[in-house]
Structure formats: C-alpha cells, structure tokens
Amino acid sequence: MNVNIESGWKDQLKDEFNKPYFLSLVDFVKTEYQNYTCYPKGSDIFSAFDYCSFDDVKVVIIGQDPYHGVGQANGLCFSVNDNVSMPPSLINIFKEIETDLTIPFPTNGNLQRWAKQGVLLLNATLTVQAHQAGSHQNKGWEKFTDAVIKTVSDKKENVVFLLWGGFAKKKGAKIDRTKHCVLTSGHPSPLSANRGYWFGNKHFSKTNEYLKDKKQSNIDW
Questions:
Q1: For 111-170, what is each residue's pLDDT tens digit?
Q2: Which residues make beta-bridge pairs with 61?
Q3: Annotation marks residue 65 as catalytic
Q4: CB of 175 within 8 A of CB of 199?
C-alpha cells in the first residue's frame, strides 16, 4: 500500500503498510474522517515522520493520543498549532526546560522546531475523533507505532528515548538499552507533576549531555 510518508520511513516501514491490520486501520480512519470531525487534519497524520526523517532521529518522545480540541493537534505529540493555547502538560514541559536549561518560556507551543532537529514526537495513536479522547485506540495504531519504536531501536544507535509516565514506559519496554539512552520520569500532566514526579527530571540537559558524549549536535530546546 502506498502511504504518503517521508521516504526514509517509507523504506523502513514498507512491510508494515501491507499487513492486514494496517489495511483495516486505513479503512477505519478513512471512514471516521468522512463521517466525523477528526484530528489532526488528514495531511498532518504523519507529520511526526515528515518533519523528522528516519536518518535524522536522535531523540524519541512518546505520547499517547492527539489532542481532541478544535485546532490543537498538528501530528506531533504534546505539540499544538501556532496561536493555540498551550495545554497544561506542555506548559509543564516548558517550565522544566526553563529551570533545567534557563531557556526562556516560548511564545507558542508548536514543536515543529524540535522535530526538525531530529526529535521524533510520536503519539501511540495518530488520530482521534473530535472531543472523544481515546476514540481511535485499539484500532491498529498502537501496533504500528510499536513497529516504529522497534525499528528505531533495532536499526539505529545512540538514540535518546524519553518515556514520561506509565503508558510511555510500557510502550518503550522493549527498547535495546545496551545501545540507546532511555530516560524515564513521571508524566508532565498537572496530576503527576504536582506530586513531584515530573519537575527536576533534567531530561533536556541529560539528553544534550548524552548527545554531546556521542559526538552528536545538541537539541536547541
């Protein structure tokens, strides 16, 4: 099946696109987008891959579901479109960056700038029905994104995986820790962060320290 995705990823994942579960997933997503308002817009479903080519991946951040509010989701986990209010988790991410690296709080929450530097911002589920959190879970996306994580783990070296919260930790359980750096903490959501499981994890400076040690360029967070 021909999927409109960055050529490096297309080459790495070509076998996945022809598996029965993925063909069923495509049929489901097409039907949902025809009958309901869904996010992100169709052309942004694979944005995480289009902005961060397979060859460029240096960091992987794993999210769960796209935002389901109007105009929020842009295909990158935790990211929102320009001129959209930042959700609480994203605010807490920027607060940690501000404390960790003394980088000023940004004016918008669009993380395309990270993706273009080699940060794969991967949601476990790539689509959602408007205002219906989790509505596209267990339809095949999770199997696809598991294959993405396994491909990065198997085919690349010295990638930093940032696993925030129990869901992401479970999702990244099979990453080869002998050749990659895996950093874990609580989720940046207020519920977790306010209990002390997020702030102070210093994941952003630790990521850059690891990349520097491996002779790779830093991420400008």
A1: 999 999 999 999 999 999 999 999 999 999 999 999 999 999 999 999 999 999 999 999
A2: 121, 162
A3: yes
A4: no
Q: Which residue has the tokens 């949601």?
A: 123
Instruction: Yes or no: say if 57 and 122 are a contact pair by the CB < 8 Å rule.
Output: no
CA angle 183, 193, 196 (to 5 degrees): 80
Q: Please, what is the angle between helix 203-213 and helix 88-101, to 10°?
A: 60
Phi–psi pair at 51, nearest 5 degrees: -85, -20
Give every CB contact of residue 25 below 8 A, 6+ residues apart in sequence.
139, 140, 141, 144
What's the CA gap between 72 and 84, in Å, rounded?
Answer: 6
Strand 160-164 vs strand 181-185: parallel, antiparallel, or unpaired?
parallel
Rounded to two decimals, what is the model's pTM? 0.97
Whether residue 94 contacts residue 86, with contact meaning beta carbons closer than 8 Å, is answered with yes
Q: Is residue 1 a contact partner of residue 15, using CB atoms and an 8 Å limit?
A: no
138 Rama class: left (phi>0) / alpha (psi -120 to 50) / beta:
left
Active-site entry in 15, 65, 82, 213: 65
Paired tokens of 173: 């359980």
Amino acid at residue number 169: K
68/25 Cα distance (integer angstroms): 19
DSSP letter for 184, please. E
